[in-house]
Amino acid sequence: MARPGTKQLFLLFTLSYAIFAVAGKSYYDILQVPKGASDELIKRAYRKLALKYHPDKNPGNEEANKRFADISNAYEVLSNSEKRGIYDRYGEEGLKQHAASGGGGGMGVNMHDIFSSFFGGGKMEEEERILKGDDVIVELKATLEDMYMGGTLKVWREKNILKPAPGKRRCNCRNEVHHRQIGPGMFQQMTEQWPNSHVVCCFGGASYSPIFLSQVCEQCQNVKYEREGYNLTVDIEKGMQDGQEVVFYEDGEPIIDGEPGDLKFLIRTAPHNRFRREGNDLHTTVTITLVQALVGFEKTIKHLDDHSVDIGSKGITKPMEVRQFKGEGMPLHLSKKKGNLYVTHDVLFPTSLTVDQKSKIKELLA
Q1: In this structure, how many other beta carbons lie within 10 angstroms of the beta carbon of residue 223?
Q2: Number of folded domains in the chain?
């Protein structure tokens, strides 16, 4: 049998990468950025997620530690142009082969070293202050089925977009340091942003604080706001908590000479006609007859993914008795574990009894 040629090997490698890409989340998904994201956007995404899932903020939380490791690994690759190029073409397996050949890879990185080099220390650091537009917070209702199995929601979004406009604009594009006398021999240093052009006024040989005149800057292009709309796809992950955020970085309100704010969807659980959610547990109520309550019954209920749960009983069931079914509740987010299902039994009593029925009941129960 002939050995496969270079073209065949390449096709096999490409196919294996395609299978890998379908099987798990990509580094772009982990950092919640699009594939064509700029280096600056990748930096900001890493900064926010690393601060959120850092072990110092989540002591004893194994899922957060795993998420932090995934975030660090994704950033280590996507922040390196060479590794990012290899990853985009050949996936994680390509990085492993690149590392094996002596080129250095994106696997087995020290997540704390990455965090330390990025923030300047191994301990938690405060996020740097940057001029940002307003965050937009939207409550979004998801069905209990989507929260149980995972799903997507389509959302129409309208926001202001900064567009170039004719001419120049007034701006504060240069820092100026000046001093103000606040008492005999006492001066206060102040740093403020001023326009490029200013006039210093002097009277009688004595210098006073500069009088700055706001003028149109020759370097800063004029801009205008335009309203635009587009569709967004919001991923509902299996087991997400009620009120959990899904963040679209830099998709909030824009601001001139700064970064746009973020768009944050607060995922709320929509009311359900059969189940009620409390944390990771589910609650439901079933109605049984008085005879079923006394002699037992066979009954199943349909779960959120349509699988059947046997809730029958061979014993006596008291009115409003609650029974627990372990592992039949909501899945825990980013975990294989599940909460519990609690079934409350509502016993349906007859509205009336005949004399003969009363006599027989007395005879039986006596």
Answers
A1: 15
A2: 2
Give the position of tokens 């772009």. 28
93 φ, ψ to 5°?
-65, -35
Q: Tell me if 18 is assigned to some domain.
A: yes
| CATH number of the CATH domain containing 18 | 1.10.287.110
For the segment 203-214, the average pLDDT, to the nearest whole number, is 38
Q: What is the pLDDT of residue 103?
A: 62
Query: 3-class SS at 190?
Result: strand
Question: What is the spatial distance between Cα 44 and Cα 47, in angstroms, rounded to a whole number?
Answer: 5
Q: Considering only 169-173, 224-228, 274-278, which range has the smallest mean pLDDT?
A: 169-173
Which residues is 160 bridged to in the sheet? 227
| Domain coverage including residue 70 | 6-119
Q: What mean pLDDT is predicted for residues 168-179?
A: 56
Q: Tens digit of pLDDT for each residue in 311-343?
A: 999 999 999 999 999 999 999 998 889 999 999
Give me the long-range contacts of 211-214 (CB less than 8 A, separation at least 24).
212/176, 214/170
DSSP track, 234-301: EEE-TTPPTTEEEEETT-S---TTSB---EEEEEEEPP-SS-EEETTEEEEEEEEEHHHHHH-B--EE
Q: How far apart are CA 183 and CA 168, in angstroms?
A: 40
Please tell me the pTM assigned to this model: 0.58
